[in-house]
Design goal:
- By secondary structure, the chain is an alpha+beta fold.
- The chain is built from seven helices and eight strands.
- The strands form three sheets. A four-stranded mixed β-sheet has the order 3-4-5-6. A two-stranded antiparallel ribbon has the order 1-2. Strands 7-8 form a two-stranded antiparallel ribbon.
- Helix 4 links the parallel strand 5 and strand 6.
- The longest helix has 25 residues.
- The protein is globular, with a radius of gyration of 20 Å.
Length: about 250
Amino acid sequence: MPAACLFDLGRGGDWRARPGAATGRAAVEEAARTGIGAPVAQGGVGAGTGAVAGAMKGASGTASVVLGSGITVGALAVVNAAGSAVDPLTGVLYGDCVQGWADRPAAEVHEAAQRRLAEAREETRRRSVTPVRPVLNTTLAVVATDAELSRAQAQKLAGTAHDGLARALRPVHLLTDGDIVFALATGARPLPAESPGSGFAAHVGADVTALNEVLGAGADALARAVVKAVLAAEGVEGPGGVYPAYRDLY
C-alpha cells in the first residue's frame, strides 16, 4: 500500500520522531469512529501540525464539489511547501486568484505583512542550530471520489490533480519538494453513460465526458483545499523558528 508522511523536522521536533504503522492504524481507527459526513479537522492537526508554506505556517485543509451527475469529488491537502501560497506583490492567495474569489488587501496592510514576514524569517534564521541548507518540504494530498473508476482512471485523476497544486502554490514541484497526490474511488456511482457519437469519444468510450468532469473537479478541489489549509493555519513560535499564519498577517 502506498504511504507518505510529514514530520516536524527543524521546528522543535526530533529526527527520530516519525509516524509509523502504529500511528497510521490509530488514525484509521479514529476516523472509523466518526460518522459518515462528519466534518474533517483542518488547520494545524495531524500531519499539518508542523507544516510550513514558504515562511508562513502551513496546515491541513479540505474541499469538495458535487457534480451535476451527483458524483462527489473531494480533496485533502497537507500544505508543507517550499514555495508560497501567497502572491508577494499583492498578498492575495494564488488559489483565490485562479478561482476569481480574491479580494486584494489594502496596500498598507500588505506592506505591514511583508515586514512582519521578513522579521519572522530573520528570527527563524537566528534560532537555527543547523547549517544553512535547502529547505526540505513536501505537500501531501488525497483526492477521492464516489465515482466508479478503473485503476488507470484513478491514476489519471491523481496526475491531473497536481494541476491544483500548481494553481495554488508557487513555485511547486521543486527538487526539494516531495509533492504527491493519492487518488481513490469508492465505486458507489457509475460514470454516467452517454452516446459515443463519433470521433474521439467513440474511440475512448462513452464515459469520456463524465470522466473529464471528475478529472477537472479533482484539480479544482485540490486548489481550494490548499487555500482552506492556509486560512485554517494558526501561527507558531518555538525553538524551530517563527512562522506566522496568513490570518496573522492579513
